[in-house]
Write a structure and sequence with these properties.
Mean pLDDT: 91
Number of domains: 1
CATH class: Alpha Beta
Number of helices: 10
CATH superfamily: Aldolase class I
CATH topology: TIM Barrel
Oligomer: single chain
Strand order of the largest sheet: 1-4-5-6-7-10-11-12
Shape: globular
Order of helices and strands: EEEHEHEHEHHEEEHEHEHEHH
Largest sheet: 8 strands, parallel, barrel
Length: 256
């Protein structure tokens, strides 16, 4: 049976987990590794750390984060931020991460996806796409926390990324991020239908029904931050709700 996944996400800024609405009004949410270990114990299927620290050289930061997480976390985890070339990814994966997530570096040099997939395999490469809806109903990929448009159509960019070797798409609606109004289902469905790799829905989860909706329209996994960080729901609560809706979830007692 193919189980769907619930993935807590930790946006890390200067060593602390933070969360805001559309990347503003940032609030502190704790130590990333402590939170990760807590979510692991609760039954998270995977974890994602995204280092958003505004520094020119993040490699040492994300490598140390990967090393700390590997010591305390037993489910697969992905790290994004600071991976701009193969050597960066090698250091992060060697420190214990299972996958690397790339976004702006891939926009700047799409060949990076090819390089990473060739060296590490597609299963280690997550292409993160931050998308905003245009007035005409299409979607554009953005970088810099949703502040900078790239001119790239998000659906076409997802297709290109997968053709180049990305093994997974981390899709965030910048229109919904942090709003707790639910995932952007039209966008999620269009990306899921456009590629043949798993899509992680992100941006906007506020209630268990939002996760059910995201999985129903085609996402393979649902990413959450605020609802877990600030205690609105626990992982067992949302997984029970998803399972009750008839969507296959790995039982918490039997997770690897």
């Amino acid at each position: 049976m193919h189980y769907k996944r619930v993935i807590p996400c930790m946006d890390v800024d200067n060593g602390r987990v933070v969360k805001g609405t559309k990347f503003i009004d940032i609030r502190d949410a704790g130590d990333p590794v402590e939170l990760a270990a807590h979510y692991d114990a609760q039954g998270a299927d995977e974890l994602i750390f995204l280092d958003i620290t505004a520094t020119s050289d993040k490699r040492a930061t994300v490598v140390e984060l990967a090393r700390r997480a590997a010591n305390d976390v037993f489910v697969p985890f992905t790290i994004g931020g600071g991976v701009r070339e193969v050597a960066d990814a090698h250091d992060v994966l060697d420190a214990g991460a299972d996958k690397v997530s790339i976004n702006s570096a891939a926009i700047a040099r799409p060949e990076l996806i090819d390089d990473l997939a060739q060296v590490f395999g597609a299963q280690c490469v997550v292409l993160a796409i931050d998308a905003k809806r245009r007035p005409d109903g299409s979607y554009e990929a953005y970088v810099a926390g949703g502040r900078t448009p790239t001119g790239k159509d998000a659906i076409e960019w997802a297709r290109e990324g997968v053709e180049r070797g990305a093994g997974e798409i981390l899709l965030t609606s910048m229109d919904r991020d942090g709003t707790k109004d639910g995932y952007e289902l039209r966008l999620t469905n269009r990306i899921a239908n456009a590629v043949d790799v798993p899509v992680i829905a992100s941006g906007g989860a506020g209630h268990p029904q939002d996760l059910i909706d995201g999985l129903t329209v085609g996402a393979d996994a649902v990413l959450c931050a605020s609802i877990f960080h600030y205690g609105s729901y626990t992982i067992p609560e949302v997984k029970q709700a998803i399972a009750a809706a008839g969507i296959p979830m790995r039982p918490i007692s039997s997770r690897v």
